[in-house]
Every structure is written in C-alpha cells, then in structure tokens.
Amino acid sequence: MLQLHDRRSRVFSGHTVTLQRLRQKRDSAKSPLMTINIIGIDADDTLWHNETIFRLTHKRFNELLGEFADEDTLEAKLAAVERENMKTYGYGAKGFTLSMLQTAMEISDGNVSPKVLREILDAGREMMTHPIEPLPGVEDALKQLKERARLILITKGDLFHQESKLAASGLGSHFSGVEIVSEKTPDIYTRAFTRHGGAAESSLMTGNSVKSDILPMLKAGGYAALVPYPLIWWAEAAEKPDGHPKYREVSALGLVNQWLDEIR
Fold first, then answer.
1. Which of 93, 108, 129 is the last residue of a domain?
2. Fewer CB within 10 A of the end CB, N or C, for the chain?
3. Is 247 helix (H, G, I), strand (E, B) or coil?
C-alpha cells in the first residue's frame, strides 16, 4: 500500500505541476504584452494650430499674385517650388517664405513689384510671430499621459521657430525631452527613443501626420496613434495603415490614454 500511495503522490504531484503550467500559460496569454515607457508627441497640428496659418498665408499669396496666374496655377507652381526647396531649406515658415518669393519671381517672369515682394516677406514674418494657442484639451491630455509614461516632444522644422513655439505654448514643462529633427524616419525614431533611455518597440508616437508620425514609427517597431487634424499639408498625405496591430486612430489626444489601457 505504501508503494501505491507513493506512486499516486507522484502522479498527483505531476498533475498539479501540469495544471500550474497551464494556468501560467493562460494568465500569460491574458496579461499585457507591452508596457509603454515613453510617449513621443508631435507639435504642429497636434498641440497647436499650424496648417491653418499656412492656408491663410496661401490665400494672401494668391491674392498678391492674382494678376499673373489663377489660383490653381499658383498653387501648383508653389507646391513644385516647395518640393524642390525642401531639399535645401527643410520644413517651416522660413523655407515656405523663400519658396513664395521664388514662385513670385518665376510666375511673373521677374515683373513682380517690390511692394508685393515686401508683402510676401511680411506674411512670412507674421507666420513666425503668430500667437501660439494650444488646441482644446491638449494640456489636460498631456497631464494624464505624463502620469503613464515619460513624454518626449518630437517635431520637425526650423530649430529656432519650433523652440519659440514650444516656449510660447506654455506646454514645455510636460516634456522630459525635446527632439527637433529635419525629417522623421524609422532610424530617427529608433535613435531618439534610445537616446532618452527607451526603445522604439516599447514606445508610442502620436501625431496628426500618417506619413511622418505613424508609418516610420510602425516601421521602427513601435506603436503609433493618429490624432487627425481637419487640414493636412499635401507633403504629409499618406494612406492609413488600417488593420496594423500597433496602430490606432483616435479623435483627440486625450483618448490615447484609453489605448494605453489596452496595450498594458
């Protein structure tokens, strides 16, 4: 009987171990797969208005050059000049102002008046000094997200102008780091999150541009949340990666917090 008891004990013991392993496997399957340590956040049209200001300047430019071409022709010419000049000037109001001046000279065959050129320069200056007002709900969203992970501002554009806008917004205190880059690529995201003590795979990027904030972050292995803005610059247009397991579209920055609950 003693031998039978010992054998049964060993059987039940083995069965218990097996059940424990099954439970651990089941619990593991239910447990969160990832903890987001760093959240990267775009600036223009995510934290404050930007494209709206550019559109108003576009309208003024078309009015100033109306004697030389119709609106569609002016827009097409300006876009072509911008596309070429981005290789030299990068992104931002300064490069856009130079592109407007070049377009004015070329579309008019050099006949544009000094007065019009001065007005274009004034329009560019106004873009640089336009008041910065955070979008509705942005500050509360940043406060909530900051309780979940470290926040890094990742934006592209002119260094001086982007720093000035961040200072004017009053939102700088919510960020533990700022990255102002010439372009957003998978490698840029990989290096940026590594530089701040994390990794792209355990980080999340959020912004309004599919081309800059979403696709390269997903390619870097991270999570990406799109917060659409009503207007999108032609150079930032791209197809949404619907169905990607690490992608989500939300209607407001504050709703990123809800997605974090699902990721964790």
1. 129
2. N
3. strand
Q: Give the range of the structural domain holding residue 105, as residue numbers without chain letter.
A: 51-129
Dihedral sign for Cα atoms in the order 254, 261, 151, 193: negative
Q: Are residues 183 and 56 in the same domain?
A: no
Model pLDDT for residues 24-54, shown as the tens digit of each residue: 444 434 434 568 999 999 999 999 999 999 9
How confident is the model at residue 28, as a pLDDT? 39
Residue 117, both tokens: 């050129």
Residue at a domain's end among 129, 154, 183: 129
For strands 177-181 and 247-249, give the pairing: unpaired
Task: Let me know whether 183 and 253 are in one domain.
Answer: yes
More confident residue, 234 or 5: 234
Q: State the distance between the two ends of the chain, measured CA to CA, in whole angstroms.
A: 52
Sequence-ordered list of residues with C-beta below 8 angstroms from that of 54, at least 6 positions apart, any chain:
96, 127, 233
pLDDT in tens, 47-105: 999 999 999 999 999 999 999 999 999 999 999 999 999 989 989 899 999 999 999 99
What average pLDDT score do residues 124-133 get? 93
CA distance 136 to 48: 9
